[in-house]
Amino acid sequence: MRRLVLLAQLWFAYSHRVSPVSGCIRYRTHAMMQELNFADLATASIDNVLRMCGEDVEPPKSLVSLKLAVKNDDEVAMSTGMYNVLVEQTLDYDTVGEGEAMRLKATSLDYSQTDDDRVKQKMRYVYSYGISMYQRGLIAPELLKDIVLNRLASRVGMDGPAFDQWLEMPPAA
After folding, report:
1. Distance CA 6, CA 4 (A)
2. What's the pTM?
3. Nearest to 7 by CA among 83, 91, 97, 67
4. How far apart are CA 45 and CA 85, in angstroms?
5. Staple 32 to which of 16, 28, 81, 102, CB 3.0 to 4.6 Å?
6. How far apart are CA 142 and CA 146, in angstroms?
7. Cα separation, 148 vs 130, whole angstroms
8. Around Cβ 130, how many Cβ atoms within 10 Å?
């Protein structure tokens, strides 16, 4: 994709140590991951998505469950909620502008058109992102599988194996 979703940028910044001077990335150790403040990350994600929606775009419905997870201080629900927001934001919206001026607008993609490269590109992006979260221990395999089957594969009219084959990716979990 030509752009990085702000949520992905935020998640990357929190899941990696980036030196502002050298641009070097030092991966967090498991102990460092335990220090990750999911409530702060989730709140920042909510704020960013709402800012990108502005006053004229309906925000993703999945923000409600993410807000509830923050309120209940439920790290598993926050992590899963952030992934659900990313899925909804990526699939239901397109971005216009760049940097702080980046805004969301409803997408015009028809997900039944599986031969459309943009459909495949968006699906591959959110699926790969989920796999990356799973590999870092940030989302349980059963939760990822549920999201992939019920929010991604079903959206393009496929089951899990057909979805993996279409995207030319190994199964997530």
Report:
1. 6
2. 0.78
3. 83
4. 9
5. 28
6. 6
7. 8
8. 26
